[in-house]
Structures are given as structure tokens and as C-alpha cells.
Amino acid sequence: MNYKEMTKKELLEELELVRQKYKEYLKCGLNLDMSRGKPSDEQLDLSNDILKIDTFKTKDGKDARNYGILDGIEEAKELFSDILDLPKENILIGGNSTLNMLYDCIARLYMFGDGENKPWHKYDKIKILCLVPGYDRHFDIMEEFGFEMININLTKDGFDIEKVRSLCKDDDSVKGIICVPVHSNPTGVCFSKKALENLASLETKAKDFKIFYDNAYAIHHIYENIEIDNIFKLCKKYDTLDRLLYFFSTSKITFAGGGISMLCGSDKTIEYTKRHLSKQTIGYDKIAQLKTVLFLKNKNNTIEHMKKHANILKPKFDIVFSKLEENFKDNAILSWENPKGGYFVSVNTEKNLAKEVVRLCKECGLILTNAGSTYPYKKDENNSNIRIAPSYPPLDELQTAMDIFCICVRLATLEKMTA
Amino acid sequence: MNYKEMTKKELLEELELVRQKYKEYLKCGLNLDMSRGKPSDEQLDLSNDILKIDTFKTKDGKDARNYGILDGIEEAKELFSDILDLPKENILIGGNSTLNMLYDCIARLYMFGDGENKPWHKYDKIKILCLVPGYDRHFDIMEEFGFEMININLTKDGFDIEKVRSLCKDDDSVKGIICVPVHSNPTGVCFSKKALENLASLETKAKDFKIFYDNAYAIHHIYENIEIDNIFKLCKKYDTLDRLLYFFSTSKITFAGGGISMLCGSDKTIEYTKRHLSKQTIGYDKIAQLKTVLFLKNKNNTIEHMKKHANILKPKFDIVFSKLEENFKDNAILSWENPKGGYFVSVNTEKNLAKEVVRLCKECGLILTNAGSTYPYKKDENNSNIRIAPSYPPLDELQTAMDIFCICVRLATLEKMTA
């Protein structure tokens, strides 16, 4: 059945049928929040043994219970170095949230600059390039600081490099770009070698241009193991290492609310960050660091652990794709991306229908991420992008949720087509 | 023996004897860092059971492992509310460091203001009143932001209120005062009812005047249980609650590097803080919060736990005082405070000798807090205040350390007197 080939009369008949089904779902009294990319209880259970680790001595004999070790315990640096192929000397371990670490880095740039250039608050305007659709919390931070966000479209394996180039070249107020390079939130884009080379070698007017590189899903593969090029090495090659702020965390490896985070950057960046950080804190929670390392051990073990996550996530993503195909393969009123990992499925309705679909779902008790949230200022000018987060609900609820979602897409589209 | 009553010849003879003793200590090869107020291993051991708690469900059935609960779990708010007699609705739970929380509050004022007045970075000058001698890390934060620090002398049970009054009354750039109201670092001053009333009722030109109230040692009694008046209630009485930023943590109750922190303020302050915090993080480590609550349980149990700390700390403070009395009771070349709790003993040498005493100690392998550190900009204009932190070393090492310290005070003083 293809709505686009149907007569008005057929569409009206279909609308009547779809409305009936929708009314049935309205009565179901579902109460399901799929708004965020939260791991499920089953996924969290994979790491429960971390709670049982009651050691407090680091491998070099330091006491993780006491003050000190501002930049994190050695073995935590070694773990991240192993997993991400980064020099451990260039790693700083943080608290339970990369978002917090990213925010603090931006706050530091805003308040104090990068150590060589004036603080960003001294500029009338700061512009940040935002890959779209993207992660709402990234955009929220930029908005918080009053930075102007400029949309850069994602492509299949990168982003609109020509637009980025032309914006950066002559404009000193273009100070940075923010991206999720692997299994991007929400589209699942993974950056090609070319995209990363472009990023590392970008010619920028601003001397304090920064790449906010949030590699949140670096090893969060579901359908395919993706290994992208090493941005640290590329930036080193192009002598642009001072622009790199590389973030990673174990939030979606161990516990979402109780992981540990990491910042990696040039010697200068790490030294500068530590200098300011030493005023901000005596040190992050080293018990959390030690537990994480003793639990995850090393790269190989962590990769094995991530396969267990994938085994739980895959059937959920399968449901999303099979429902989408069942409903829309021959009825092109909805398109979607096919991510190889990560936490989201990005779909696009016909123009100007996303908000209505989300509203209709909400009426049935299904909370989706607000339409628009995947764009800066929450403004999706096509009003068509919706982020589906299938990780949290159990399989049966997800089935129902996807049935509801598909009906809502049909209903909104039919109502518009027959209006 | 009183140096001030001795003849030059006697002083020179005494100098020779003291030099001999000092040379013996030089040979000892001691290696002891008494620069920070770190709890001892024995104190940390008191809380090892916290490591064994492997629950993750909050009492209202939430999952502490997952994302969410920005302002902290209910039972953590209840615990702090119980311990400090503060309304739990006005409490926000943070990460492992009050210093970080204090820094973030100041950064927020600097970047965004307090929600009703312009950001502090828009002012040419911001002045902060600093009680002296005080906590070096407080002063470091103020210096980091380029605020002008103004020394306010501590008194026996408060501070120079007349100076504070005259500075605040007509100067809009005087934006805050920072204090440790109980067992103050380093002098041990505890604020009287009058001092607190003065603080709460202070007339300030600045509408966005803030009291940075770091109650770090609220229940950290050693010789006497001190209970001061409730600043929250006083500020409420004088309708100045919006100026209060009240900090507390369990760093020196459970683990120094792995406690949880708290901010308490007016409804408006908490609402405003949460609004900005929601951009900065998804939430702090709730596993740490839950463990802390399950371990400390309630006020009574926490007070009992603090008595165990006191039992470990008291013999150490006893050594400090007995050595000081033995050496300087009848030889007024050194004066000291008698704190009733906390982590420090504040001593004053004769003018211009503190740096030399610290240097002499260092030569013997005894690291003290740098002289000057207890003052803004590290400038003790008398060069006489030294902070002794007796908590960390074992008793026998502390004995030796105090012997060395006393010899160094004698040596430096004699060298000056005979110069």
C-alpha cells in the first residue's frame, strides 16, 4: 500500500481505518518513556559485579579513598589509552559525566580562553558549527553560553565539508565544531577517513578553533564493528592537536549514571586544563575510577563486555527496523537511517509532520524525544526528524510502542493528505 | 626558658645548642608531608564498609545505576537535612567535592549572574571579603576569577564586623564573603550567634551579594561539641535567604576523595542552580549517594561515626598542644590557637619568621603548608602564620615532626634575635 498512489477516496477510507486503530491504542493506557537513550535494566545488570569490588589501593600503592591525583589514577588512563589508542600521557580522567567535562571545557574557554587567546566572553559573537541532526544536550550547552549555532548537514559518512571550509576560512568568530564521530546521535553516521582528515586539516581563521569530539559510542557497535581513523594521530600529522578536545566515558559501558569520563588533548591542552582544574577540585572520585578499571580490565575484555550490550540491544533495533519496513517499505511516507550501532534510530516524516506524530504518540502514552530536539534551538526547519530510542523498554513494550508510532505516522500523514 | 629575657651571650649559647639539635634532625632523613588536612588511613578505614554496599535501588524504587535525578536522591537530601537542620526541599546533592560545587556556583555567577542581576564578568571589579587567616583553596578560586580579595580579620568567635559593614554598605562591587563558620580552617574559630546574626542581616549595596558558607567541619568536633546558630533560619528571618550558598560534604566523614557534596539555598537559588545544572550534567553519581546514605544512615549514627574520627584525631592534636606548651609556654616566641575540632592548628611566629621556619622544616624532610597560604594572594603581611595539619601522620612520626617544628621555630627566632 502506497499512499502516494492512492485516490482521495482511498485515502479517506484508509484514514478511517487508521483512526479506528489509533483509538484502540488511546484506550490501552500505555505509559512508556522512550525520550532518552537510556540503557535497560538488563544492560545495567551486566555490570553489577562492579558494585562488589571493594579494593581501594591503586596499582602503584596509592589510596583511592584519600585526596589527590587530580588527573586520575594511572590504570584508568591506561584503560582508555588501550581502548581508544590514545597516548596515556595526554589523558585526564574526570567524574561520572562527559557532558559535565565538555561543559567545563567550554566554560573554561568562555571564562579564561585557551591559554593563548582571549576568553570567549570577550567576543561579541562566537559561532559553533553543529552537525545536524545531532545531540540535543550538545546544542543546549552552546545555547546556554549564547553561542550562535550554525547547522552543518551530515552526509553518509561525514558532513558538508565545503560549507565548513567556507565558514571557517575567513571568520575569526567561528570557534569550533561539535560532533559525535561514531554511531552519531541520532543518525548513526560514522566518519570516513576523508571526513576526519578534513576535520584535522581544516584551515581556520580562529587561532583558538576547537573540535569538540564526543566519541560517546566509539565501541558501541550492534550490527557492525566500526573502526574509524584516529583523530589524535591525524591532528598530530596536520599539527592541529591543540584544537582537539576528545571526550569519552564508560556511562554506556558500565552504569549510565556512575561511569567515569575522559578528556584527551595535546600536552598543552592537558597542562592548561589541569592548571585550571586544580582550582576547581582536589580530584575526582578515584574509588569509581578504580572499580571501573578492575571491572573492565583492558580493551579486549571491554570489547567482550560490549558484545553483551549488543546482544541485548540488537533484538530491540531489529524490532524497530522490522516495524518500519513492514509499514513503510512500500509506502514512502517515512524514511530512516540504518545505524550500525549506538543508541538511536533517526527517522524523517514528510515535511511538517514530526511534531504532530510526537503529539499523537504522547496521547497514547508513548513519550518520544520532542520533535526538533535534534536541531540547534530545537528548530528543525522541515519539522520532520524524530529520534527513536529503543534501548530502554522491554521487547514486548517496544513492539507496542513501534506499532503505535507507525500508526501515528500514518494518521498524521493521512490527515495532511486529505485535508 | 624565655628568650626575651636572655642576654645576647645566653642567646648565642642557646643558638649553638639548638643548631646542634637541628643538625641531628637534618641527618634523620625524615620524609613527611603535613601540608594538607588529609585524614589518616586509620580514619579512612572507619568507612570501609561503604565499599561493601552493593545495592542500587533508591527507597522510592529508582535505579541509581541509570541516568537522571539531577538534584540527587531523596534519601541523601534527607540525610543532610537531618544532620544540618536544613529543609530538604532546599538541598541539592552534588559530586564528590564541595570545592567543585563552590567553584561551579562562582563560575555560574561569573558567567550568568544570579538570575536577577548581570553576570559578574561584566563588572570591571568584583570584591570578595575573605576572613583571615583562611582556607587557601577558597582564595585560589577567587584569584582564578580575578576577584579582588579583601582581608577581614577573624576574631575569637566571629570577624571584624565593623570593617565588613563599612565595606558592604556603599560599594556595589563588594559581592560576597567567604567563610568556614565552624572549626574554621586554620584557626578553629566557631561563629557566635552575634556573628551569624551580623552576617544574615548585613546591609549590602550589591543586590547580588552572596555568603559562601562552607560548613566543612560542621560535625567535626574533637574537644568540644559545638553547635552554632542556624544560618538558614537567620537568613530567612532577615529576608536575605537569596544570598546564602551553604556547602557541606561527607569528604571528611567517609572518604576524602569519594564523598558526596551538598548545596543548600533559597527556593530561588536551588531552582536557578538546577536550571543551569541541567545543561551541565544529566546527574551526579547516585551510586555514591546511595552508598553514603546506607552507610551513614541518619544524624545520630553519623555523630557516633564522627566520635570515632575524634578518637583518632584527639591524640594527634594532644601531641601538637603538648609539644607547643612544652616548648613555648614560658617562651612567648610562638602563639597558637586552641581549636575545639576541625583539622588544623594555626600558629603565629614572631614577625617575618614563618617562611624561614617552613624552609628549615623542609630541609629536615618535613613539608608544611607554605607560609602565606592562609592569606589571599599567599601574602601574610606579618609573615608569621603557619598551618599545622596533624591528621595524617601516625603518632610517632607526628611526635618527631613536632620536635622538628619546635626546633625550627627556636632556630629561626634565635638567628633573628642574634643577627
Features:
homodimer, 419 residues, alpha/beta, Aspartate Aminotransferase, domain 1, Aspartate Aminotransferase, domain 2, seven-stranded mixed sheet, three-stranded antiparallel sheet
Question: What does the model show?
Answer:
The structure is a homodimer of 419-residue chains. Chain A has 2 domains: 3-43 and 303-417, Aspartate Aminotransferase, domain 1 (Alpha-Beta Complex), CATH 3.90.1150; 55-297, Type I PLP-dependent aspartate aminotransferase-like (Major domain) (Aspartate Aminotransferase, domain 2), CATH 3.40.640.10. Chain A is 42% helix and 13% strand. Chain A is built from 13 helices and 12 strands. Chain A has helices at residues 8-28, 41-45, 74-84, 98-112, 136-144, 161-169, 193-201, 231-237, 267-280, 286-296, 299-328, 354-363, 395-417; strands at 32-34, 91-93, 127-132, 148-153, 174-179, 210-214, 244-249, 261-264, 334-336, 345-349, 366-368, 385-388. In chain A, the strands form 3 sheets. A 7-stranded mixed sheet of chain A has the order 2-8-7-6-5-3-4, with helices on both faces. Chain A has a 3-stranded antiparallel sheet with strand order 9-10-12, covered by helices on one side. In chain A, strands 1-11 form a two-stranded parallel ribbon. In chain A, helix 11 (299-328) packs across helix 13. The two termini of chain A are 20 Å apart. Chains A and B meet through helix 4, helix 5, helix 9 and helix 10 of A and helix 4, helix 5, helix 9 and helix 10 of B.
